[in-house]
Amino acid sequence: MSQFVINLLFVGASFMLYIGIAIWARAGSTKEFYVAGGGVHPVTNGMATAADWMSAASFISMAGLISVGYVNSSFLMGWTGGFVLLAMLLAPYLRKFGKFTVPDFVGDRFNSKAARVVAVICLLVISTTYVIGQMTGAGVAFARFLEVSSTTGLIIASCIVFVYAVLGGMKGITYTQVAQYVVLIVAYTIPAIFISLQMTGHLLPQTGLFGTHTESGLPMLQKLDEVVRELGFQDYTADVSNKLNMFLFTMSLMIGTAGLPHVIIRFFTVPKVADARWSAGWALVFIAILYTTAPAVASMGRLNLINTIYPDGPSAPALEYAERPQWLQTWEDTGLVRFEDKNNDGRIQMYNEVPAFAETAEARGWAGNELVVNNDILVLANPEIANLPGWVIGLIAAGGIAAALSTAAGLLLAISSAISHDLIKNMINPKISEKGEMLAARISMAVAIAIATWLGINPPGFAAQVVALAFGIAAASIFPVLMMGIFSKRINSKGAVLGMLAGLLSTTIYIFLYLGWFFIPGTNTLANVPDNWLFGISPLSFGAVGAVINFAVAFGVSYLTEEPPQEIQDLVESVRYPKGAGGAVAH
């Protein structure tokens, strides 16, 4: 049986499972569409939350980022820390408030339509920019494993999401995400176990990372350091020089995670306040399985790649291009691996093409780095690089697509809820019937899917830039207003609105200054290099600064203006004690 047929069977079976669950769990009311009826078990919700969170970025890109250097484990620390903040500071209190959406909480807590509108704008920008990466990730997985163009892959993915998200709403998405979690975690860990056994003899990749490299007898990380150093790269375990930027970047990811609307709404689906906290705890357990495996996948994958190109070591002649393995040829067809024989010797030279190392390379007779490998392919290509069985490759195909679809569905639901519930129901037409609201929600979802597909085919910028904007805005706008709304009775609507706007504008302007206005190439005001950064703060790290600006403006304005009405202060007081909340209610 060919690899294509195996991939098709695995992916097709997963699609049938998702559609079957959506039909079984289809939403029949607005409560089921927005919060799955409010009766999801904490363990089930934890698993669904883990799938909702572990996007294409986590499944496909994260190990690729860490493979460049262990310093990129800041992604793990930031993203995981965000769930701790959610569990301790936000989830139980928001659940007690008993609303359907984040703008719902903001609008009612601050008794302000302006605050609701600003929250809706932030939510739409965050979710729309974030969903682009998910659709693009699905396109990459389809392009490689189903041998179709990325555009065709995106359209197929959109059709699948349309069926189970529009039909099932949060109820269908919840149980579909449970299935998707099982698919993606099995797909991620099984290849990692195979590779760990091959390279270190350890069954668990987490221990294999710190074990002994079987072939050389050296500690795994020491072996990797030596190999990458010999090719002119920085040591894999090297420290970072700019500690301030590292701290702010980790904080931006942390509070950005805690402010992501599609993650927050998952905690509105459980029966009780205590269940919200338990859901976050279970989500951390399920996420940790993948996140503790990712560094091992990254390091072993990078060493495997280098060993493929330099089978006798970096000091020996490189692999002849004509003898390259089949997986390399296949990935070349996708454009994510590119080879250029610069010295016409028929061999693949791969090294760090920096001035300091260029002299050494020139002395060896090299004429420039010849192989460019997109980091995003590492997880997807790992089973092929390690010569694992075809069914493992089929499994990783289904897992990569599941990761992209699960998060895309959650983001699209957040967009749909903001439009149908927060704008139409609460502001434009409060007298709309439940049937009319359900229709509006489904139409909003369909339109959101169409826009997300178009943006996935024609992305406004490099994916990392777009995701940076999503996290930056969540950190600088949503997280602070939720924290102040829960823990401060003195913050009024004027402070909340101006604080959100200050955080939103300062963060987006700073990002656009370096990455281009609205990510249009060539429109950046300053070159995106450390020498130009304000106090050495990267655009990717500015979300934490934007959050501080939000807090400062909100407190300053609130204390210079009138206190909130007494009933709002009493409401905040009651929310601080997260006990005895009823079901989510519509307004």
From TrEMBL:
CDD domains from the UniProt entry: SLC5sbd_u4
GO terms (BP aspect): carboxylic acid transport; sodium ion transport
Topology relative to the membrane: Multi-pass membrane protein
InterPro entries found in the cross-reference section: Na/Glc_symporter_sf, Na/solute_symporter, Na/solute_symporter_CS, Na/solute_symporter_VC_2705, Sodium:Solute_Symporter
Cellular component aspect of the GO annotation: plasma membrane
One Pfam family from the record: SSF
TM spans (from-to): 6-25, 76-94, 114-133, 145-166, 178-197, 246-268, 280-298, 391-419, 439-457, 463-484, 496-520, 540-560
Location within or outside the cell: Membrane
Protein origin, superkingdom: Bacteria
Keywords on record: Cell membrane, Ion transport, Membrane, Sodium, Sodium transport, Symport, Transmembrane, Transmembrane helix, Transport
GO molecular function annotation: symporter activity
Membership in a protein family: Belongs to the sodium:solute symporter (SSF) (TC 2.A.21) family.
Protein name according to UniProt: Cation acetate symporter
Annotated source species: Halopseudomonas phragmitis
